[in-house]
Write a structure and sequence with these properties.
- The protein is of the alpha/beta class.
- The protein folds into two domains: about 1-160, Glutaredoxin (3-Layer(aba) Sandwich), CATH 3.40.30; about 175-335.
- Helix content is about 55%, strand content about 10%.
- Helix 3 (about 95-105) links the parallel strand 3 (about 85-90) and strand 4 (about 110-115).
- The longest helix has 30 residues, at about 205-235.
- The N and C termini lie far apart (about 65 Å).
Length: about 350
């Protein structure tokens, strides 16, 4: 009967671990990461891998009843605080009533997605299991988040050159859009929109208005350069980067544009500064998202709300708020067609 006792012991250990796979887990390494979905989110607005393209993402599957998951969660919390340019997402199938108190108990500060069927898309047969998704959207590593290869794989992916995500083709902009951007002192955005304006032949009034806007923007180039250098001296790197980006957008071939480009190159060469700029962009995007979300309670103009979210996503393309804005756009568009 020794063999029976051995089987019982092994089965009990596997049940307690909560991570006994029913079959060999297929590798997704080198393949496009399946899109994620969830019924509810904690610590984050809803996220999608499509909106996070260009960023490194950790998608980890877990459950409240899983002992090894409870052990790995503090490790993931620590890593999410250390590698702030990486988006950590904990996926679970369980309901909010069970997950929310558990997440508070373990101080899970990264994004938690619940009521999710995504584990089936990833072929997960045991938990905890983590997948590292590179900026190109492909899985670069999968395995147990407490294994020795997990952190080196994250660090290796962070060190890779940024993946350039091709922007979706933009149609012509309107003069009113440029005017709105100027009113908000979004000079770089105004310059980008102005370049997309197509003035009808023979429309002298529109041509004059566009010319006046160009002069207004050119006058801002030295002012924005000075503002950027002042912020740089104060080590406010996000504002410095924003100002230098404005100058390059306004007058790329001018002395001011060349000087701003040189500053941007210096900022790009310092990893700690790049991290500070990224954090500043995340905060600015979240602030703008929160403001738009507040207006949804009183503003019944669905088209205007969609436009506001589109502007946010265009201005802050690589942020969590942009990902959330894309989801609000879909929800509002669906509501509009009802």
């Amino acid at each position: 009967m020794k063999w029976l006792a051995a089987i019982v012991t092994v089965a009990a250990a596997m049940a307690l671990a909560g991570s006994a796979p029913a079959a060999e887990e297929a590798s997704l390494v080198g393949q496009p990461a399946p899109e994620i979905s969830a019924q509810y989110w904690l610590n984050s607005q809803p996220l999608t891998l499509k909106a996070l393209r260009g960023k490194v993402v950790v998608v980890e599957f877990w459950a409240t009843w899983c002992g090894p998951c409870r052990q790995s969660i503090p490790h993931l919390v620590e890593l999410s605080k250390k590698y702030t340019t990486v988006t950590f997402i904990g996926m679970t199938e369980e309901p909010k009533g069970k997950v929310e108190p558990f997440a508070k108990e373990l101080e899970m500060s990264y994004a938690v997605a619940g009521g999710s069927p995504t584990s089936r898309e990833y072929g997960v047969t045991g938990i905890p299991t983590a997948f590292i998704v590179g900026g190109d959207g492909n899985v670069v590593w999968q395995g147990h988040p407490m294994s020795g290869g997990f952190v080196p794989a994250i660090e290796a992916e962070i060190k890779k050159p940024p993946v350039k995500v091709a922007p979706e083709p933009k149609g012509p902009a309107s003069i009113d859009e440029v005017a709105a951007a100027l009113q908000k002192n979004q000079f770089g955005r105004a310059a980008t929109l102005l370049a997309r304006i197509k003035v009808p032949e023979g429309d002298a009034a529109a041509r004059n208005r566009v010319d006046r806007m160009k002069k207004t923007l050119l006058a801002q180039a030295p002012l924005r350069l000075a503002a950027g250098e002042k912020s740089l001296a104060a080590k406010d790197y996000y504002k410095a980067d924003e100002a230098f980006q404005d100058v390059v957008a306004i007058a790329p071939d001018s002395p001011q544009g060349e000087k701003a480009a040189a500053h941007l190159k210096e900022l790009e060469g310092d990893e700690s500064i790049k991290l500070a700029i990224g954090e500043g962009a995340q905060k600015a995007a979240l602030d703008q998202y929160s403001e738009i979300l507040k207006t949804e309670k009183t503003n019944k103009n669905t088209a205007a709300l969609i436009k506001a979210y589109e502007d946010l996503a265009e201005r802050f393309p690589d942020t969590k708020a942009a990902a959330a804005a894309q989801l609000r756009i879909k929800a509002l568009a669906a509501k509009k067609t009802e």
